[in-house]
Structure formats: C-alpha cells, structure tokens
C-alpha cells in the first residue's frame, strides 16, 4: 500500500492510498479517515460506495463526514467505483465502463478480467483495511449514493453477518427495473435476467435476504427519481416482506452532494449507534 496524501482534519487524519489489486488486476485508489483514538484501540468502520462517474475523491472532498466520524469514533472508507488504467476496457457512455463498475463481478468479455468490484469490496479491500488500519472488522456498516447505494444495499443483503448496518442516499433500488441497470447488467452479466437478481436489492429481499433495518434518504427534487431510482419499489417490497426500513423522502433535495452532505452526519450517527 502506498500513501498518496495525508491531511489533518477535524481531529483525525484523512489519507488517500493506492495498492495493486489482485481482483481487478489494476492499481486501485481509496481514501480512509481515521479519528484520533487511544493507543491500541480498534474503531468501527463505515464504508461509503460512490455513484456513477465518481472516484474516491467526490465524497472525500464534499461529503462532510469527518466531524461526525470524530464525534462517534468511526473510520470512514471510500473506495473507487471501478478499475482504471490504459488496459481497462471502457465505453463511450458515462453509465458503463470506467467510473461505472456497478459493484458486480462481470462475467462477460471484455469486462470479466478487470471489472470485479464485488469481490474487491467484499473481500480484498476489507483484508487490506484490517491489516493497515486500527479497524474493528467485527463492527462494519456500509452506505453509498446512487449506483453506490445499489452497491451498499446489495452487498449488505448478501452479507448480513458482516455488516451490522446499511443505509443509502438516492439508491438505484432495482437495476432490473431501470435503464441504468439494464445497460450495466446486460453488459457485465449477460442477457439472463435471473442472474441479475443477486445484484438487485428489491429482488434480494423478495428472495428472502434480510438486514436488521435500513435507512434511505431520497430527494423529491431528484431528476433521476422517476425513471432510474424508483424508490417506491423498495418501499413496497420492504412492506410486503416485513423488512424494517426508514425510507425518507426529503422535500426539494436533488441528486448532488449538497443533498448528501446535508444528511451525512445523521447517517454516520445512525450507523454508529448500531456499531457500538
């Protein structure tokens, strides 16, 4: 692991790091914020998965999470959204290829070699975090935005023994039912829609997956709400399945980091309560 930068902030250290990933076959960059803590202490970890076109830098620079993480003693980890490099295939659209890994393990060529973000987030990066940082890996939560909200929900639903808490901002709740998901999963996974269900939060809940509870914030002024995000699908499936969920429609907020940063401290506190 190579340290790219460290900065003192809010009573902690914000670092940016890179390493050679065996899962993606590329260098991967990520950020970690570690609050000040007693020597030898281990802190709970909150993962944040970013959305389409983003890198680790978007939330690191605009997420406004550090003060809340210091208050509650939580490490904040922000990975990249996809593999990158000259040898990594790409697409002309913003919603596929680099910057749009969708947190899946691709099975279709030419994507299968490098686009293994599911295994990277579920296996490889957690092992590195446990080795290099004062992280209590028995206390992990996960959140994310948009495509990253999709990632957070599906990863938590598939791994309830690993993640004690899950939340999301403006998540893609059902890739099976939106254009972004249709393009991404057709390209990465192939045309068999049954194989997509493990990457669809609504389908996972329909198929029996559960988490203790979940928190979702969605802005009513989000231009992607009607066609891509379809928050009502998650509300409906949680109600039918008896899955506890606080799904909050926030009046007038859009899809941007102005929205995310407004509610970030609440999400950090919500996770911290469950990670004690």
Automatic annotation (TrEMBL):
SUPFAM superfamilies: alpha/beta-Hydrolases. The keyword Hydrolase applies. The keyword Hydrolase applies. It comes from the Bacteria. One of its GO terms (molecular function) is hydrolase activity. It catalyses: S-formylglutathione + H2O = formate + glutathione + H(+). Its EC number is 3.1.2.12. This is S-formylglutathione hydrolase.
């Amino acid at each position: 692991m190579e340290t790219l930068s460290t900065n003192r902030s809010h009573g902690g250290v914000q670092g940016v790091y890179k390493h050679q990933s065996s899962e993606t076959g590329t260098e991967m960059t990520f950020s970690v914020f570690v609050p000040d803590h007693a020597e030898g202490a281990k802190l709970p970890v909150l993962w944040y998965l970013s959305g389409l076109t983003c890198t680790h830098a978007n939330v690191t620079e605009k997420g406004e999470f550090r003060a809340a993480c210091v208050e509650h003693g939580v490490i904040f980890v922000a990975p990249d959204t996809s593999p990158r490099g000259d040898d990594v295939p790409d697409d002309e659209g913003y919603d596929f290829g680099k910057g749009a890994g969708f947190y899946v393990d691709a099975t279709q060529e030419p994507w299968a070699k490098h686009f293994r973000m599911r295994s990277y987030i579920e296996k490889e990066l957690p092992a590195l975090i446990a080795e290099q940082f004062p992280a209590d890996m028995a206390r992990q939560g996960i959140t994310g935005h948009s495509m990253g909200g999709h990632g957070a929900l599906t990863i938590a639903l598939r791994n309830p023994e690993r993640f004690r808490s899950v939340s999301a901002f403006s998540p893609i709740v059902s890739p099976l039912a939106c254009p972004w998901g249709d393009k991404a999963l057709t390209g990465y996974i192939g045309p068999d829609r049954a194989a997509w269900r493990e990457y669809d939060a609504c389908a996972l809940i329909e198929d029996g997956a559960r988490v203790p509870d979940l928190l979702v914030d969605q802005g009513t002024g989000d231009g992607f709400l009607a066609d891509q995000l379809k928050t009502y699908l998650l509300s409906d499936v949680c109600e039918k399945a008896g899955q506890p969920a606080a799904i909050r429609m926030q009046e007038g907020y859009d899809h941007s980091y102005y929205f995310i940063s407004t509610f970030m401290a609440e999400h950090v506190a919500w996770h911290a309560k469950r990670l004690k």
